[in-house]
Design brief:
168 residues; 17% strand; four-stranded antiparallel beta sheet; alpha+beta; Tetrahydropterin Synthase, Chain A; 4 helices; 2 domains
Length: 168
């Protein structure tokens, strides 16, 4: 009887050892496959981006993130009434504009009155409820870029920064 239990226990140990080895092998294959896929997709995109960011001379001229930021100019703060109907609301906002080239190569200084006028009309047409949300601020930032770039004929702005934004 002791011989029977010993012979039955031996195959059970051998079977569980094989299962563990198969599970370990499957785990290693899954980890290796996942790591290889990640390397392929992440590394492939980086190399493609690097190829597109180089010109014939090997110089980088990639997207916005590869370039150094342009000069930043500050507009005088705006204090204006908002278009709320229920209650009189005010907006005080300070805006800085990032130019796409040196200020001397743009017509920014000559266009400051027209830029301020365009932004006063734009901002005073907005309601406070829209401007309080993050998405509202993003939208107004895009509208500011569009308006200012429409006014400027030499050079453009590449970014808009709010340094003060107070609604009362």
């Amino acid at each position: 009887m002791a011989d029977e239990t010993a012979t039955e226990a031996a195959p059970a140990k051998a079977g569980s050892g094989k299962k563990m080895m198969v599970l370990g092998l499957v785990g290693v294959l899954l980890l290796g496959g996942g790591g290889g896929a990640a390397w392929f997709f992440m590394g492939g995109q980086k190399e493609e981006g690097e190829k597109h960011a180089k010109n014939d001379n090997g110089d980088d001229h990639g997207g916005k993130h590869a370039e150094e930021p342009g000069p930043v100019v500050e507009l005088e703060p705006f204090l204006l009434n908002l278009a709320d109907r229920d209650e009189l609301r005010f907006l005080k906002v300070s805006i800085k504009l990032e130019l796409d080239r040196p200020e001397e190569k743009t017509d920014y200084q000559n266009k400051v009155p027209a830029i301020r006028d365009a932004l006063l009309v734009l901002l005073s047409s907005k309601e406070s409820q829209l401007l309080r949300t993050v998405n509202g601020k993003r939208r107004i930032r895009e509208e500011i870029m569009t308006r200012v770039n429409g006014v400027m004929s030499k050079g453009k702005i590449s970014n808009v920064f709010f340094t003060d934004f107070i609604i009362q």
